[in-house]
Amino acid sequence: MRLKSISIAGLTGAAFFALWGLFPVRAPADPSKDQASRDTQQNDGVQLAEKAVRTLGKSSTAPDKTKPLDSSKDKTPTAWRKAMQQKVAMLKRGREFVNSKDDYTAHLFKQEVVRGELLDQQAMLIKCRREPFSIYLRWTEGDVGREVIYIEGANQGKMIAHDGGWKARIPAFKLSPDCALAMRDARYPVTSAGLLCLMGIMLDVHENDLKISNVESCQMVAEPFEGRHCSKFTTTYQSSKTSPTYRKSVTFIDQDWNVTLHSEHYEWPTDKVPSGDRELDAATLIEKYTFRDLKFDQHLTDADFDRSNKDYNFR
């Protein structure tokens, strides 16, 4: 029996993701009051990440290739804060990196809890253009053949879609991205799909974590993910009181691009607590997102977001 999901719409306005891109009870003791004071002063200037995560930034940064320190065996308050600060810094660089690119393509794999039920994994080809924000999705796992197009500022703010399978014979329709039909198997609307949204969600959460110090541990190790050099961050939270949505998160961030390639998030158990970490994670997964075959600056054109494209199956 699946455990009841706790919504995070308030954090993101939207999925993926997760996605989003994007969790015990013992408050970690500070080594000293002076250290706590310094930590507080250091983070007073941190602000919550804006929820308009598709900001059309013009800046770019060189990839950060600094190999992170292994913090997996150090669980002091200072250690988790340093690891969290490095994660936040990488996410900010990643956001600037993506905003410096005109577009990207990838295969997106997602699994989410929707209306209290963990759905089967879905997979889709994604094409994303930065300006104007445009996205094309074609399902390759799940409702195979479904297609969605959304262009910011076009089609009266609606997305164009058609279902897969035999329903693909039904003419495509327009609908609001956040209506019940569009959200029937998604935690977030298509307007929040993609890398920027996932990283924006995570920045929003972690900058708040640094402010309120609700983290039990944040461990960082260098670990490859599907052939890419990544920093793996595993974060656990103190209690559902200080972190009502997340109990734990595991994230792989590419060390060259600083973008999130994989992220999975877990909630607090609301029923009998399973024995063993694996059983607990399996019972409390709320969202998981993976970007594979990620390619930037693919010279996407208007045709890639046109329902009349001969390679698409809109009717």
Keywords:
alpha+beta; 5 helices; 12 strands; 20% helix; disordered N terminus
* End-to-end gap: 40 Å
Which structural class do the helices and strands define?
alpha+beta
Mean pLDDT over the full residue set: 82
- Biggest beta sheet attributes: 12 strands, antiparallel
Total of DSSP H or I helical runs spanning 4+ residues? 5
Question: Strand content of the residues, in percent?
Answer: 25-35%
The number of strands is 12
Helicity level, as a percent range?
10-25%
Whole-angstrom Rg: 20 Å
Describe the protein in words:
The chain is built from 5 helices and 12 strands. It is α+β, with helices and mostly antiparallel strands and 315 residues long. Strands 1, 2, 3, 4, 5, 6, 7, 8, 9, 10, 11 and 12 form a 12-stranded antiparallel sheet that branches. A hairpin with a 7-residue loop joins strand 8 (215-222) and strand 9 (230-237). Helix 3 runs antiparallel to helix 4.
